[in-house]
Every structure is written in structure tokens, then in C-alpha cells.
Amino acid sequence: GIRFTTLLYTIKFEDMLQYLLILLLLPLLTLPPILSCFLLLLFFTILTLFLRLRCLGRRIRRPTLAFFHPYCSAGGGGERVLWQCVLGVLETFPTATVYIYTGDSDTQSIVPKAEQCFGLSIPAHRVEFVSLRSRWLVEARWYPVFTLLGQSLGSMVVGLEALCRFQPAYFVDTMGYAFTYFYAELCGCDVISYVHYPTISSDMLGKVASREATFNNSALVTRFPLLSRLKLLYYHIFAKLYSWMGAKSRLVFVNSSWTQGHINELWSGSKERTFLLYPPCNTEKYLEIVSDTRENRIVSVAQFRPEKNHALQIEAFALFCENTGRRDVTLTLVGGVRNAADRERVEGLRELAAVSGVEELVEFKISIPYQELVDIYSKALLGFHTMENEHFGIGVVELQAAGVIAVAHCSGGPKLDIVVPGTGFLATTAEEYSNHVTRILDMGEEGRQEIREKARQHVKEVFSDASFRENFISRCLDVAEVDLTWIEDGGSEEEFTEESEEFGDSDDEHFVEQ
Questions:
Q1: What is the largest CA-CA distance in the chain?
Q2: CA 66, CA 70: separation in Å to the nearest integer?
Q3: Which of 152, 238, 272, 418 is in the most buried spot, having the most CB atoms within 10 Å?
């Protein structure tokens, strides 16, 4: 009995939560779906109220700010936003410590990897990581149907675990998991959002209504009108839930005009608290690139995700080679892989290149160091971007800053904010991409240089790391009234020690793993 009591006392609250969740889910498998959903909702409601009481029952704590970014080491554009926000907070509040919720197990390597990937200098001793074990619940592979709803409900569980482990004063979501705001608000956190891409949009509703097959609308659904109507109803219900969750954010940043339009349409009453903030693009390093001679190389920089549509790039390149008969031009695909599904996707692209007859002309660069990427940019003549309705398009901005002539998809951020007249080209079909490649290669060097100069000037005036950090912090201070200066104003560190003995925790290490 003594051993059992001692064991219960040493189990962390968040671990006990996971055990309870598992014990609850097992019997729910035998119950009717409606009753199961009701019991799950009741379970999470009770837990939420307990979290709220737990938060209010403690003495006043030191104001803290935590970023919710479970994939903080992925190395993509969203992670660049995260680390620039972190730097902005640390520069503004010299004594503050920033917390990051992450599902990565090797937290010691996260900061060095971010520094190498983005060319930043991050004070690692002022960044602490809160490890999450339930990150797998937001992965799409677990939800072959009702993927949006499954991932969103999964994010609620991950958010619940995050707030059990550590409750900040300011909860900053930089990945777009709007369903986590429900628990953050009930736990007394001020929610700040940076939205890269709306989880659902009117464009998605339109594609389902028109029965157009895309990567998120299978051909099976489009073939049957009844399935399309049911999916459309499901999307409308989900959009209402998404709107309700998004309304809980006190301050909303969006990364492009396209995203801003959709968020203002979806999140009720959000116009007054939504601000356009172009993401940081690390333009300074790329603007320094000087290259008098460039190779006949096409480069693409994007994570190997389905929506990036790398297949269209290979099809366009193969069409160009077929139409012109040229074999002196190469295509280099640069990107990161997150999991086994991404690695399988890369193998599929290799097979597509082989079937298209351009295998020896297509090169894959997976998760390369930052300096190697700079070297590739300095040699490439033009670049591809093929994602439809890309929320912003950091890769396109980097192409322009590096002096690489961009051929981007004629939609979303690239069309509305980045590729302004005279700075590059827009395309939709493989034939259009192929024709633009031919046009650029046949163009004289003087004409190409004029496009580069206009594009670089546009980048200098609109996009930069420094302006991003400045605008992010100014809005946080003015709108969300973020203040992490309690210690500086004469408070004592001991004032903010959390009274957690009743939960078996005697220090912060039980909640935070550095």
C-alpha cells in the first residue's frame, strides 16, 4: 500500500491525464457514436474546469509567454516566423524567458538546428521547451476520413496537455491550431495568433460544391453527388466551429492579403483585431548574392508536402525538354521531409521524373544546410513555385531576393502580394510554366537583369526580418498589452513560484524540460 501510494504521488498530473484518457477511450469503442461524443465532451469539460480552478487557485505568477508550435524543428517558413517572434520578444524584454511547446524529443538540438537552418543567433539559455507526448494526434495519417475535424480535435488534446504541463499568461499559436484556443481562454491565457493558412476557406467549399478533385477532395467523393453534398454540409459545420474558436483570439496576425480576406470572412468580428504582417524572409543574406554567371538551372525550394505540387514542376520541366529538345537545363528540388509519408512522396517524384524521361536532369536536395541553399540560389537562373492558393509564399520572396527569376502559381499570396508587374511571371498549367521557362532562357541578359533589379527592390521595400520583429512586437504591446517586465519592476522571483506541491511537483522541472 505504501509503495502504491508513493507511486501515485510521483506520477505527474499530465501523465495521469493521458492514462485516464486511454482508460476512457477503451469502453467508448463499444458505445454508440453519439453517446461516445457526449461522454468525451463531458470528460474534457470537467478537465477544463479543473484546469481553470487550478490556475486561479495559485498565487500570482511571473508573466510568461509560450509559443504553441509542436513542429518547431521542421525548418520551414512557419518555423522562421516562430524564431523571429522569439527573437523579437527576447530583444524587447531582456530578462524574459520564452517557452515553446514542442513534440520533438531531442530538445537540446532544436536551437542549434534553427540557427543553422535560418542563419540566426538565438540565446539558447533564455529558451525553454515544454515537451508534448501527444503530438501524433495532429498528424493527418491517423484520419483517413474527416481529416480536418480529426486533426482539429486532436489539436485540442495536444493543447490540453500543453496547458497541463505549463500555463502561461500569453498563449501564442504560430501553427494555426485554432481549436486549442478553447482551453487557452478557459485557463485564463490571452491568445495571440499568427495564421499562415485558414484551416478551411471559401475556396475549399467551392471546390467541393463544384465537385472538383484536388489533394483534399478525393475523386471518389466527386463521382457521387450525395457524397459531395454530405461533405459540403460537413465543411459548413466545421467552418462554424472554426469561426467560434477563432473568435477567442485577442490579437490575430495574417501573413498575406489572401489569408486576411478569408480570416475576416470566417472569424466573426475579427477585422478590428486582425493585422497583415508579412512573414520574415531573411532577405538580407540573399540580397548580398552577386553572381555574374548563372547556370541553366531551375530551382524549387519547398517542403515535400502534397499541396506544394512538386509533380506539376516535373511535368512542366519534362514538357519544356520535349518541346525544345534541350538537355542542358536542370531542375533542382530542395526541401525538408517531416515524416515517412514525405519520404515516400519524394520517392514517388523520383519515379515520375524517370517515367517522364528527365531522371538524369532532376536533382533532389533533402534538408540541406543553409549555406548550401545560398550556394544553389547563387547559381540558379530561375525558380518554380506551384502551390495553388499559397497563403503567402516565402520561397518566392527568397527567389527574388537572391536574383533568381520566379515563375509562381497565379493565385494566393504570390499573385496578390509578391510577384507584382515586372518582377517575375505567373502560371497555372504545365504548358504555361514551360512557355515561361523558354521565354526567360531566350531573353537577353539585359532583360533578365532588369527583372532581377525590380524584384530585389520590391523585396527591400516590403519584406525583412527586422520590420517583421518590430511590427510583431508593436502590435503585441498596443493591442494585446503584452508585458513581461514584472521582475524588472522590482518583483521577486520567489513571488512567482507556483504552488504545485498538491500535485506532487516541487519545481518547474516537472513542467518544463529545457
A1: 85
A2: 12
A3: 418
